[in-house]
Design a protein that fits this description.
heterodimer, A: 427 residues, alpha/beta, D-Maltodextrin-Binding Protein, domain 2, six-stranded mixed sheet, three-stranded antiparallel sheet, B: 320 residues, mainly alpha, MetI-like fold, two-stranded antiparallel sheet, 2 strands, 1% strand
Chain lengths: 427, 320
């Protein structure tokens, strides 16, 4: 009797398991429940976009409630707050991450859960190309699913100002430098605005490095396989000096004092060009109410003719899932959702591009269309500053501030030697 | 003659002497120590527990952390005094020591001397200057973060900055980036910190002047002393205890300064305004090198103790 009962239960269990195995993950996701905790550090318009994304997920999965955990901010770099939260015992299911070096730190600390099984079971290969999977992988294991990316080699400009100066977006470096005088004559005394108080002054160097030395050299520099004193690095910085000496910008002291967020910068009547991330698009549209492609637009970094004009710097944001999260099923479902059509389209409406094929590309505005087109036709390299060890990136930013103060060849040598000295101890 | 007046005042004030020449003797605890000790311990127990949790434990743990190499979320590694050796070989840290010294001395010198001078002037018309003193003291009560944001606008690098606009009246088109120029950023911060810090010295010195017996001042007037002489030979020497307290408090505040630097310059430009306090924050919270940051914290703590202990000994001497 007992044996027969046991056998029947075993058979029943086997049948149920077989049935479960046959059901697709998306069907299983319908039965999700409980609280899903997301470590979310974006504020302003980006924060609101996340709330919309989360609301949509909860609408699709009524049993799930999402709680955002917002870490304390540390001057534009939330990593300190994220570390404090995790070390303090905060249990989260999902972490929003934009720094590959930080992902490695989380993996080495045993905080992240690999997502290779989910990648296969949810069929994310249909939505994301192998290159996006590689971007979220470490030594062949996938930890991050990229949900948005941005062109960091796009120069923003105000259409009315260029029209007033009688110029069109410059295609070459020489045209770009020549445009400064025309913009000044039109009443814009500092054609390029470089907010150098913290980090934004490094953007110009990073794209110039790609355009003068290529993605391979930039990747080698990020891994410190070539020294900072390498002639290729010096060439990039000398090009930066060329721009400064051509009268691109305000006085160094003014650049070093500027920290205002991009909408404020954009309302300045002094400057026309800004090299900044694609989140600028969302801010200009949603915070300032400007019309994409009408009030402002972008052009891809002008060509230098040094053999590497097909390169661009990019950034990306990904989601990571934790090993100790209380609701792994909901976390996995959220990962699937974030590259699905609903989430991708919400982001597109906010002005962000998703790498997912599920996104309706027609929702992208003219600026994002230019940017995504430029990235898809470029050899890309991730933002250098986000790849460097924390200790080094700080020195890198400070030394480039020194460079801005006096952009001569002697300073370039001095600055690169100082960064190299720090790099020698940072890896 | 005037020196003897000051001495006489000290004698009359009863602060350090009693009529008859005997020292002021505060009630001692020796008489009830044994009998009432349990009750006394019970009464101060909550304070001791809170102090232990909020000060002693974090302090001991910070000292413990300073002996470990902790980078990011990686496990801690024991390095002994390695962090301290690295710290004193770190040119950035050595630079912050100098910056801290300039900031601390500059802020203290300006705020205390200005506060003291204003207290002297206010003492001649104490009633009429009450609103002024109140306004000056409000600056001490304003959070450094709030005053930092306010001064950011005053010191804006463009012509819209209030300071540049005022200078622009005399020098048309003038625009200087006070906080972006490494040569002026630290001095701008010292000025702002002094502005915030002047209220307390003013009140302390004013209180010290007010405690001078009127009979002494009246006697000086009757002897034909001029206001400047009274200020120089009576008010200034007799307000020195207030000045000493003001110096002590301002030194400690300037040594630990963080909020105003965080808000206004972020330690820049090119680390020109990075004090030990900000260095400690950057290493601990931005770089997340907790052990290294803790070592910097301990160095700052030692500096604070070096300043505090003599002052505490001096203030508590004779209190038994």
């Amino acid at each position: 009797m007992f044996n027969r009962t046991l056998r029947r239960r075993t058979v029943m269990a086997g049948v149920m398991l077989a049935a479960l195995a046959g059901v697709s993950p998306s069907v299983l996701a319908q039965d999700l429940s409980g609280e899903l905790v997301i470590l979310q550090w974006q504020t302003g318009t980006d924060g609101q976009m996340w709330k919309d994304v989360e609301a949509k997920f909860m609408e699709l999965h009524p049993g799930v409630t999402i709680r955002e955990f917002l870490p304390a901010g540390t001057q534009g770099d939330p990593r300190g707050g994220i570390r404090t939260a995790l070390l303090g015992g905060e249990v989260v299911d999902i972490i929003i991450n934009t720094w590959p070096a930080f992902r490695a730190e989380l993996v080495n600390s045993g905080i992240l859960r690999p997502i290779d099984d989910q990648w296969a079971s949810f069929g994310w290969d249909d939505k994301l190309s192998q290159s996006w999977r590689d971007l979220g992988s470490i030594d062949g294991t996938t930890y991050g699913i990229t949900y948005t990316y941005g062109d960091r080699s796009a120069i923003w400009y105000k259409t009315a100002q260029l029209e007033k100066a009688g110029i069109t977006p410059p295609a070459t470096w020489d045209e770009f430098l020549a445009s400064f005088d025309k913009l000044k004559a039109a009443g814009y005394p500092a054609p390029v605005v470089i907010p150098a108080k913290y980090w934004a002054h490094t953007e110009w160097f990073e794209t110039l490095l790609l355009r003068t030395a290529g993605v391979e050299a930039a990747a080698q520099l990020a891994a410190h396989q070539i020294p900072w004193t390498d002639p290729k690095v010096k060439t990039a910085l000398m090009k930066y000096a060329e721009m400064l000496q051509a009268g691109c910008c305000a006085e160094p002291a003014t650049m070093l004092a500027i920290e205002q967020p991009y909408p404020t910068l954009y309302t300045s009547e002094d400057s026309s060009y800004l090299l900044f991330g694609m989140w600028t698009n969302s801010a200009l549209k949603n915070d300032l109410g400007l019309t994409e492609g009408v009030d402002y637009s972008i052009f891809q970094f002008p060509s230098l003719g040094m053999g590497f004009d097909d390169t661009s710097s990019v950034d990306a944001k990904e989601l990571n899932v934790t090993t100790n999260g209380a609701n792994p099923a909901a976390a996995d479902a959220f990962l699937d959702f974030i590259v699905g059509p609903e989430a991708s389209n919400i982001m597109a409406n906010y002005g962000y591009a998703s790498p997912s094929t599920a996104m309706d590309a027609s929702l992208l505005g003219p600026v994002q269309t230019i940017a995504t087109g430029a990235v898809s036709s470029s050899k890309v390299q991730f933002v250098l500053g986000d790849l460097l060890p924390g200790d080094l990136v700080d020195e890198y930013r400070v030394q480039l501030q020194k460079f801005l103060q006096n952009p001569t060849e002697a300073t370039v040598d001095e600055v690169l030697a100082a960064i190299e000295a720090k790099a020698a101890t940072a890896y | 003659m005037t020196r003897s007046v000051a001495e006489a005042v000290t004698d009359q004030s009863g602060v350090s002497s009693r009529a008859g020449g005997g020292r002021l003797r505060l009630p001692t605890t020796s008489g009830w120590r044994i009998k009432e000790a349990p009750a006394a311990w019970l009464l101060i127990a909550p304070v001791i527990i809170l102090f232990g949790i909020s000060v002693v434990y974090p302090l001991i743990d910070t000292i413990r952390l300073s002996f470990f190499d902790i980078k990011g979320l990686a496990p801690a590694k024991w390095v002994g005094i390695g962090n301290y050796i690295t710290l004193f070989n770190d040119p950035t840290f050595r630079g912050t020591l100098l910056t801290t010294l300039i900031f601390t001395l500059g802020t203290t010198a300006i705020s205390v001397s200005l506060g003291w001078a204003l207290a002297m002037l206010c003492a001649f018309a104490p009633v009429h200057t009450t609103p002024f003193r109140g306004m000056m003291f409000v600056t001490f009560g304003i959070s450094e973060a709030v005053s930092g944001y306010m001064w950011l606008n005053i010191l804006r690098p463009d012509k819209a900055g209030l300071l540049n606009a005022i200078i622009g009246i005399f020098v048309p088109g003038y625009a200087h980036s006070w906080l972006g120029d490494p040569n002026t950023a630290l001095w701008a911060l010292i000025f702002v910190a002094s502005w915030s810090g002047v209220g307390l010295p003013l009140m302390l010195c004013f209180a010290a002047v007010q405690s001078i017996p009127k009979t002494v001042l009246e006697a000086a007037y009757m002897d034909g002393a001029k206001p400047t002489s009274i200020m120089r030979h009576i008010m200034m020497p007799l307000s020195l205890p207030g000045v000493r307290v003001a110096i002590f408090i301002n030194l400690l505040g300037a040594l630990r300064a963080f909020d105003i630097i965080y808000v206004m310059t972020g330690g820049g430009p090119v680390r020109a305004t990075e004090t030990v306090g900000y260095f400690m924050y950057r290493e601990s919270m931005t770089q997340f090198k907790l052990g290294y940051g803790a070592a910097a914290t301990v160095v700052l703590l030692v500096a604070v103790l070096i300043i505090s202990i003599p002052a505490i000994i001096q203030r508590t001497a004779g209190a038994k």
